Amino acid sequence: MSEPRSQHLISARELIDHPVPRPVVLHVGRASATLPAPQVKIAGAHVTELEDDFGGPADGERGRLPLPDARSVTDRIRSWGIDGATPVIVYAARSELVSAATRAWFVLRWAGLPDVRLLDGGLDAWRAEGGGTEDIATTAPAVPSAFTASPGRLPTIDADRAAQFGARGNLLDARDKAAYAGGHIPGARLVPSPVFDDGRLKSAEALQSALPIPAAVYCGAGVSATTVAFAYATLGRTVPVYVASWSGWTADADRPIEQA
Predict the structure, then answer these.
(1) Which of 19, 98, 169, 251 has its CA 20 to 30 A from that of 34?
(2) How far is CA 258 from CA 159, 210, 224, 244, in A?
(3) Inter-residue contact 65 to 57 (CB < 8 Å)
């Protein structure tokens, strides 16, 4: 039995040396990113985008980037040639976008794929190990699968449940200090420090000392929160995510706001 960390995280060297069957690799970018996108990707990877492939349309209390519906996530997964037995690797187009890659990890696991791992360090780590790349516009071949998503395999909560976790002091806010100070869900605690450093997950020892006993986590729009959920998963713990997060909470003017 592999350790929780290796069930969710893979190094560039391990991916280069990965035995058959070869995993399907997903290059995860973000349309809203302000920095220019890289012009290359891992050879054979499918190019994906956070907003289009791992989210649904903005929807008030469901938040700025709700989870995709079962049909759309099924169609996406099938188009990449992934079935229930396919190992999948997701990686960030840039180290600053690691939360986009953890959101992809979360959505794919939530949709029912059992073997989804994050490439530690993303594209930069791959290139540093001498991994092959190709032009970002190159289309990766895929044989469409017959996979059908079964959403709900990772836990999520709504605003009422988030309020309950907050009232018990067991709700974590994964935004930065300024956003937290400007307003947060009552009772929420700020995540003490980022769980990634330059796109690489911190050591198990560092995570264990920094992260409190888990309960639930949220952020601005359900993206950064998945970095925390991912970190807990590598420690063998599962935490629910309030996907609507602050964007959904504040869509209801009657919901209370606490300020630091």
Answers:
(1) 251
(2) 15, 24, 20, 18
(3) no
Residues 6+ apart with CB under 8 A from 74: 111, 147, 148, 149
Query: DSSP strand E in the chain: where?
Result: 9-10, 24-29, 40-42, 46-49, 88-92, 116-119, 133-135, 171-173, 189-190, 196-197, 200-201, 216-218
Question: Which among 256, 252, 244 has a CA at the least distance from the CA of 188?
Answer: 256
Query: Do the domains spanning 4-135 and 159-249 agree at the CATH topology level?
Result: yes
CATH superfamily placement of domain 4-135: Rhodanese-like domain (3.40.250.10)
Any idea where the domains of the chain sit in the sequence?
4-135, 159-249
Burial track 82-94 (b if 16+ CB lie within 10 A, e otherwise):
beeebbbbbbbbb
| CA 167 to the chain's CA centroid | 26
Q: Which two tokens stand for residue 189?
A: 């605690």
Q: Phi/psi zone of residue 236: left (φ > 0), alpha (ψ -120 to 50 degrees), beta?
A: left
Render each residue's pLDDT in the chain as its tens digit; 260 residues: 479 999 999 999 999 998 878 899 999 998 876 667 789 999 999 999 999 999 999 999 999 999 999 999 999 999 999 999 999 999 998 999 999 999 999 999 999 999 999 999 999 999 999 999 999 999 999 999 999 999 999 999 999 999 999 999 999 999 999 999 999 999 999 998 999 999 999 999 999 998 988 789 999 999 999 999 999 999 999 999 999 999 999 999 999 999 97
Question: In this structure, which amino acid lies at residue 98?
Answer: V
List active site positions: 219
Q: For 212, what's the count of Cα atoms within 13 Å in the CB-facing half-sphere? A: 14
Residue type at 158 in one-letter notation = D
